[in-house]
Amino acid sequence: MAEESKRMEEGLNLPLNDDDLKRQQTVETGNGSSIHEHDKDAAMVIMPKTKRVATLDAFRGLTIVLMILVDDAGEAYPRIDHSPWNGCTLADFVMPFFLFIVGVAIALALKRIPKMKDAVKKIILRTLKLLFWGILLQGGYSHAPDELVYGVNMKFIRWCGILQRIALVYCVVALIETFTTKLRPTTLGPGHLSIFTAYRWQWFGGFVAFLIYMITTFTLYVPDWTFVDHFNTDEPKKYTVICGMRGHLGPACNAVGYVDRQVWGVNHLYSQPVWRRLKACTFSSPGEGPFREDAPSWCRSPFEPEGLLSSISAILSGTIGIHYGHVLIHFKGHSERLKQWASMGFVLFIIAIILHFTDAIPINKQLYSFSYVCFTAGAAAIVFSGFYILIDVWGLRTPFLFLEWIGMNAMLVFVMAAEGIFAAFVNGWYYEDPHNSLVHWIKKHVFVKVWHSERVGTLLYVIFAEITFWGVVAGVLHKLGIYWKLKEDLRISVCDLNGKNFYGISTNGVFS
Fold first, then answer.
1. Residues 106, 108, 111, 112: what is their CA dihedral angle, to the nearest 10 degrees?
2. Is the preceding peptide bond at 145 cis, omega within 30 degrees of 0?
3. Residue 127: pLDDT above 60?
4. CA-based nearest residue to 311, from 371, 264, 367, 251
5. Distance in angstroms (rounded) separating the CA atoms of residues 201 and 179
6. Where do the record's region annotations for Disordered lie (predicted)?
C-alpha cells in the first residue's frame, strides 16, 4: 500500500537533448552493478524507479473509449449522442474530460522545470503538432472510414476541431504553469483554501478566460447574417438569418457563432452541426432525419462546436484539471486529496444546477457555457476520484488495465479507431464493390444478422470489434514498449540493478 500511495506523487523525468544522450556514461554502483547516466546535471534529473500515474492513464483511456462509443454508436442510439442544444448527454462529457486530464497531466509534467526556455519550446512545438494533426484529421482532408477518397476544397476547409481545441487549452494552461515556476510554492500554508492562493496565477488565467467569454457572449451585438447552403440541396441556395440582438443563447443568434463567422468565415465551420436534430429542424428528433418543410433557415447553416470563443471558455476546464493535479502534488494522504476533490466537485455541480434550472445559463456543449464547464468538471472530478480510490487506494488495478493500455497509447487509438483511419485502410481492400470489405462483412454477418437488429448489432460491433480490439492492440504494444507520441520522447531509460529498464512517467497532455 505504501508503494501504491506514492504512484500519484511521482513527477516527470525531464527530457535531455541529443547532446546529452551522446554523453551517456556508465557509472558503477556500490555493489558493482552499472546504470546509464548522462552528466552531473542529468544525473540530478534521473530519479529512482518511477511509475506512470495509473489513474491518469485509466481516465484518459476511459475518455477515448467514450469517444469511440458515442461517435460510432451514437447514430443508432441518439440518446447518447451530443445533445442537439441545451442539456448534457454521454457524448457531451468527452471533450471536457479530455481537457480535465490535460490539466491534471500538465501539473505533474511541469512540476520540475530546470530550463524555462526549453519547456516553452516544447510546449509550442507540441501545440503546433496538435494543430497539424487536427486540421489533417478533421479539416476535411480525410474522408475515413467510409469514403475511399482524400482531399479537401480549401474554400471549405474546417480550421477548428477536437485536437485544435486541446492545443489551445494545453498551450495557455501549460505556458501559465511554466512562467509561474518561480512563484510555485514547495509547501502550502494552513487552511482549506491555501491550494487556491498558492496557485492564484493559474486561477487568474482561468478567470480572464471566463471574463472574455462572458462579456463577449452577453454584450456582443449579433446582426442579421447570410449563408449559402452547399451541402443540403442539389443547387447552392442562399439564406438569411434575422438576428439584431445581444445575449441570445439560442442556435441562430448567439455570439459564439457570430465570432466564428467573422474570424474563420461561414464556409470554414462544421457543416453538419448537431442542432439539425432539434424538433424545430426535423420530425426525427432526437435522431437524424430530413428537414421539416417549415424548418427555420439556420437549421441548414454551418456552426462550429469547437470554435474560438467557446474554446476560450474551455480553458476553464483545463484550469480546473490543473488544480486537481496540484492537489496530487501537495496533499500526500488519500483522504486529504479526496476531500479537496470531492468538495470542489460538489460546489461545481451545485453552481451548474442552479444556473441551468433557473435558465440563467443553460448547460450547453455547443456554446461551452459556464454551467456546462461546471457540470462536466464536477463529473470528471467524481470519476477521477473513483478511479483513484479503486486503482491507487484499494489497488484494484487489473480490472482497469485495458483502460490504462489505451490511455498510454491514446493518440494511436484516437487516430486509428476514433478517426477511423484503420477501418478506412481495411475498407480499401474490397471485392468488386467497396461495401464488400472485411469491416462491412464483420459488422453485417457477425453482429447485425446474428442479433437481427441494426441498433444492437452496431453497439456490439463498436464494443467488441473496435473498443475491445484496440484495447488488446494497445496492451500488446505496451508489452513491446511501443508508444505513439506527439512530442519528443520524454522517457529516460536507465538500467536497474537487475539489468531491466525502468523510466519516469510521461504525462504532459491527453495524448502523451
1. -100
2. yes
3. yes
4. 367
5. 10
6. 1-35
How many whole angstroms separate alpha carbon 81 and alpha carbon 276?
13
CB neighbours of 61 closer than 8 A, spacing ≥ 6?
Answer: 402, 403, 404, 405, 406, 407, 408, 410
Instruction: Give the span between the Cα atoms of 411 and 483, in whole angstroms.
Output: 9
Q: Distance (Å, rounded) from C-alpha 322 to C-alpha 177?
A: 9
Which residues contact residue 354 at a Cβ distance below 8 angstroms, ignoring those fewer than 6 apart?
360
Strands 433-437 and 494-495 turn out to be unpaired
Distances, alpha carbon 3 to alpha carbons 171, 195, 327, 366, 500, in Å: 33, 25, 19, 43, 19
Burial of 36 (0-12, 13-18, 19+ CB in 10 A): middle
Task: Please give the torsion angle defined by the CA atoms of residues 400, 314, 51 and 119, in that order, rounded to the nearest 10 degrees.
Answer: 160
- Among 161, 66, 133, smallest CA distance to 485 is for 133
3-state secondary structure (DSSP) of residue 241: strand
Which residue carries 451548474 as its cell? 352
Distance CA(397)–CA(321), nearest Å, equals 23
Q: What mean pLDDT is reported for the chain?
A: 84
Q: Is the pLDDT of residue 306 over 80?
A: yes
**Least confident range of 151-155, 162-166, 192-196, 284-288:** 192-196
Say what percent of the chain tops pLDDT 70.
Answer: 84
DSSP one-letter code for 82: P
Q: Which three cell numbers stand for residue 115?
A: 530550463
Three cell numbers at 24? 551517456
DSSP class of residue 191 equals: S
How far is CA 128 from each of CA 109, 115, 141, 164, 490, rounded to the nearest angstrom? 19, 21, 18, 9, 17
b or e along 262-278 (b: 16 or more beta carbons within 10 Å of the residue's beta carbon)? eebebbbbbbebbbbbb
Note whether 457 and 449 are within 8 A (CB).
Answer: yes
> How far, in Å, CA of 350 to CA of 12, rounded?
35
Report helix, strand or coil for 121: helix
How many Å is the Cα radius of gyration of the chain? 24
Q: What's the distance, Cα to Cα, between the start and end of the chain in Å?
A: 27
Is residue 261 pLDDT above 60, yes or no? yes
- What average pLDDT score do residues 132-160 get? 92
- Cell reading at 166: 486541446
State the pairing for strand pair 25-28/221-222: unpaired
Are residues 367 and 252 in contact, defined by beta-carbon separation less than 8 angstroms? no
